[in-house]
């Protein structure tokens, strides 16, 4: 997950681009069908858990959309076999931290 802020003094604008890259190992037809369904949705709400155990919400205002994907079969045993999908959200504010309720 990456967040990039864009600031323009001349236009008086501020916005943030959030990019989440999801990686799935093992290239399989059922996974690719799910990828297609995910990519067809125009407004996704994505929750990401970072390496510090915190949760972040991407797409909270306008939704996130699939912006690219890559499928790789590999040619040798050491090559990656799987696919990735990139989800991007644009928002006027930084991403929100989500608090998880424990029971």
Mean pLDDT: 89
Structural class: mainly beta
Note the beta-strand portion: over 45%
Order of helices and strands: EEHEEEEE
What is the total number of structural domains?
A: 1
What's the total number of strands? 7
**How many helical elements?**
1
Summarize the biggest pleated sheet: 4 strands, antiparallel
Terminal-residue CA separation: 28 Å
The global form is globular
Q: What are the low-pLDDT stretches, counting only 5+ consecutive residues below 50?
A: none
Share in helix: 10-25%
Strand order of the largest sheet: 1-2-6-5
Gyration radius over CA? 16 Å
Describe the protein's architecture and organization.
The chain is mostly beta strands and about 100 residues long. The chain has one helix and seven strands. It has one helix spanning about 30-40, and strands at about 1-10, 15-25, 45-50, 55-60, 65-70, 80-90, 95-100. A hairpin with a 5-residue loop joins β3 (about 45-50) and β4. The radius of gyration is 16 Å and the shape is globular. The relative contact order is 0.28.
Topology:
Blueprint: E1 2-8, E2 13-25, H1 29-40, E3 46-49, E4 55-58, E5 64-72, E6 82-91, E7 96-98
Antiparallel strand pairs: 1-2, 2-6, 3-4, 4-7, 5-6
List descriptors.
103 residues, four-stranded antiparallel sheet, 7 strands, 1 helix, mainly beta, three-stranded antiparallel sheet, 49% strand
